[in-house]
Amino acid sequence: MENKELAKMFEAENQEWIDSLDYIIENEGSERAREILLMLQSRSQLKGIDFTYQGNTPYINTIPASKEKPYPGSREIERKIKSIIRWNAMAMVVRANKESDGIGGHISTFASSATLYEVGFNHFFRGGDDGRRPDLVYIQGHAAPGIYARAFLEGRLTEHDLNNFRRELKEGGGLSSYPHPRSMKEFWQFPTVSMGLGPLMAIYQARFNRYLEDNGLIPKSDQKVWAFLGDGEMDEPESMGALTLASREELDNLIFVVNCNLQRLDGPVRGNGSIIQELESAFHGAGWNVIKLIHGRDWDPLFEKDTDGFLTRRFGELVDGQRQKYIISSGDYIRKDFFGKYDQTLKMVENYSDEQLEKFTRGGHDPLKVYNAYHAAFHHKGSPTVILASTIKGYGMGEAGEGRNITHQQKKLNEEELKTFRSRFGIPISDADIGKAPFYKPDEDSEELKYLRQQREKLGGYLPKRVDHKLRFEMPDHEIFMEYSKDSGDKAVATTMVMVQILTKLLKDKNIGKLIVPIVPDESRTFGMDSLFRQVGIYSHKGQLYEPVDRDSLMYYKEAKNGAILEEGITESGSMSSFIAAGTSYSTHGMNSIPFFIFYSMFGFQRIGDLIWAAGDIRARGFMIGGTSGRTTLAGEGLQHQDGHSHLLALAYPAVKAYDPAFAYELAIIVEEGIRDMYLEGNDVIYYITVTNEKYLQPAKPPCTKAHILKGMYQYRYEEENTHNLNLLGSGAIMNEVIKAADILKSDYGIHPHIWSVTSYKNLYDDAREVERHNTLNPNDLKESHIRFLTGNEPGLFIAASDYMKALPLSVATYFPGRFVALGTDGFGLSEERASLRDHFEVNAKHIVYTTLAKLHEEGKIDGKILPKAMKKLGIQPDKINPALV
Ligand SMILES: Cc1ncc(C[n+]2csc(CCOP(=O)(O)OP(=O)(O)O)c2C)c(N)n1
Ligand SMILES: [Mg+2]
């Protein structure tokens, strides 16, 4: 057959198929059409036709104009409100930078997402004052000025507040740059500005809401978690890392809105590709409901005419760099470059002026389209939804930044640019005043403010809003902790085992058992927690759909809808996000949850430090338990597992209290105090406690030590005959080496050191710095640090040994009355057994003894002959390689 004839035949054949499909859709419905298409897909696969998974749909709106619901509000008044908010958000940044050059701020992010937020505020986001559960809204960090500008119209922030944007130290306080609950605890709920954490935390928040519902702790509701995200932000691995959890758990209470303005800070997100298409296929593949919100209403009539698909094809061919170019292009250029590619598309716009072509809107700027996307997302069942909204970065900024690569950093508008902005959005500010970029607020009884208030009232009040509910709390049974004041008899026990025992008992406690949320990233067996599987169950929304292989055993893998354990799989980031969701439920849900997040201590601070920082910002409360800790205590595992620095890293976290207990009674006292501190007193802190897997006999608690254990250091052994005021300090499992060393010094050298157990160098450091500062500022009211209270002023020698870097004890060295020497585990770990590791890192009894003698010798306190003999006897090699340099 001739080519032409063939083409004709194909065309007729195509038409037949299309007609059949149309017939089915019209007469039997879209579900039936879908069924048939899926059947054909299976059939073709069986016949060996390569039908590789295609996650993409054409570059058009997911919701066709024909299926749209009418807009439920006044578009006109909403446009006015939005324009005022746009103006004030911009003015806030411009004014701040006029007053203080370089103070920063962002205009273009909110400019691109104003419609996305306003439709939400006017029609969707629930405030919670009406008894319905409030929505939890994660706002893009850099859009903060827009949220402040709305709160200003709502009367929740004053002009004084707006003037102090990014000036938190100004009199009367100021507004934080980004959403920070730590800074603005009655306003912001979710810290989002470290890119990637918002989407991750939002997923686990939605999941935790389900957990509470499934456990009967909160009523079922249609409360939503909304997360507004940047398209550039989606490059962070954290943003996309937990997508499949959200679909697996069928989180239809979760809506992502990705603000696809196609730009990030430096330039296009995907100049040579298409971020919307890329995200669509990734989210589809991960099982999400994807709604593409690409074109505004002006495009509807054109798509209606697009029966042969040329317009759709033209959109599909473009790359984002070119899409961005059209934002700043003349209508003439758009006609030629975009529509001119095909006769069919060029013809479509023959009756449109160039000016009209320039003004064609993108979906994310069209309230009707945005409303419909949100409406569909809100009602979607069975999976989470992502809305990919096409927007323009710097929308409305014109020459000053709209669609320009520099727009992200633009903070200054000159007078002409301000005038253009004002006129475009119809803000009643005169030319005479424009240079000052004044804020604008209509009268309280203006139609704009009345409407704005009325819409929020209907939705249950304002947000964002953070509430610190004052909750009733009863402490768990004191006996649970008291038990560990006794020694363990002849039973060697590791602190990890003690922690698990305490946790097991807490889960059964009548006061707080239901509040405890154990969180583990696939390490339950490592920590000996598998007994909890059966006792409290592993949470699964689906229950258990299979018979577990170990069903006959006592500790079988029991999944249950009302399970208490969040077994997160191998994700410390996900686990920490669950910790944050649980640790803030006192605020988000008005009910306490007590997370115990138990993890390999190596994979805590160094791996997920930014999330721990965010947990501090968001004022989360709970226990982080660093298991298998200690560079030399965790044997065999080598350099990527053996943690000798998490406590040093913890020093940097203001909201973290960090403890490295040696004995069961210390641990029990610290856990009980943590519960009291965070839940009875309501302090916004996190307890980081390391536990180890070394088994040893646990001693009885020495009397009157509780308060000092909590302050970070107590006297473990006092020696009457301590002539040199010699002091050995130990922590964690290394405490046993210190005790052994003291015994050797006593028996072999007649030296009698005091022994101190340091449970928290961070506490000592925080306290000593505070006291030092106080004394500097208040010379007539001198205070004493805990270190000085314990050690007095008599000069002495202090030898500190821990399983952490020397810098940890050295952080408090200057506060001791005398010479302070640290032994520690600087350097990479090694695959070895415990005793060899301790010898290698020079933290075993032998090195503690030798170091003590060497220092006493340096100070002229012992006879010079002792040292060489001791070196020989103890087997110290002076030419041994420095472990810190390995
Ligand atoms: C983890 C992290 N890295 C870098 C930044 C700095 N930063 C702030 S905004 C931004 C670009 C954001 O682009 P996008 O996510 O597309 O948001 P848009 O402003 O375009 O809406 C960058 C790199 C940050 N805030 N967080
Ligand atoms: Mg962007």
Give a quick summary of the entry.
The protein is an alpha/beta fold. It is built from 36 helices and 20 strands.
Based on the model shown, name its key terms.
binds thiamine diphosphate, single chain, six-stranded parallel sheet, alpha/beta, 886 residues, 36 helices, binds magnesium ion, five-stranded parallel sheet
What does this molecule look like?
This protein is of the alpha/beta class. Helices cover about 40% and strands about 10% of the residues. The protein contains 36 helices and 20 strands. The strands form five sheets. It has a six-stranded parallel sheet, sandwiched between helices. Helix 30 (about 735-750) links the parallel strand 17 and strand 18. The model has no long low-confidence stretch (mean pLDDT about 95). It binds thiamine diphosphate (TPP) and magnesium ion. Magnesium ion binds near residues 231 and 263.
Mean of all residue-level pLDDT scores: 96
Shape annotation: elongated
User: Strand order of the main beta sheet, please?
Assistant: 10-7-11-12-14-13
SS field, number of helical segments: 36
Please mark out the parts with pLDDT under 50 across 5 or more consecutive residues, or reply none.
none
Biggest sheet layout: 6 strands, parallel
Derived from helix and strand composition plus strand pairing, the structural class reads alpha/beta
User: How helical, in percent, are the residues?
Assistant: 40-55%
C-alpha end-to-end distance: 77 Å
Q: Which small compounds were modeled alongside the protein?
A: thiamine diphosphate, magnesium ion
Strand residues, percent:
5-15%
- Radius of gyration in whole Å, from Cα? 33 Å
Task: Give a count of the beta strands, DSSP E runs of length 2 or more.
Answer: 20
